[in-house]
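Researcher: Structure for this, please.
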Amino acid sequence: MGLDTYAMARDEHGQWRHAPDGPFEGLGLADGWGSSSIRGKVYAEVVEAATGHSLYQDHIEPPTVVEMATRLREAVELAKQTGSRIGVRELPIADKQGGTGIKRIEFPVLVVSGSEIHAGEAEDLARWFEICAERGYAIDGWW
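Model: Predicted structure, token format:
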């Protein structure tokens, strides 16, 4: 089951609307490159492990988002202190002779509250929550 996760801002009438993408520019999260929405399913395990709150909720109020942002940042910083390991992903590629080969990609992995996540994504995920918290955004889930 998929989960789309949206930052929600109040409009001039007090109604929740999708938050603007601008504040999230530069963040590289799954299906949410610089966007106010992310693929929650990809991050649900690490978020729940670090914060104690599930992303599988219809609506998460701003005070809870602040708490989640704080806990997630603490978990990411602790993971940075304890170190990372190198993850490896092998991808098939076409070679010049029309055959296929394997391209090996190495990347840093952090273990955040027992869940593995690419180190760059961990930082961007924590920052995504911090932006939501700083701006008083709620979070909505849709699955």
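Researcher: Any notable elements?
Model: The CA atoms of residues 78 and 112 lie 8 Å apart. The helical segments are 40-51, 62-82, 119-134.
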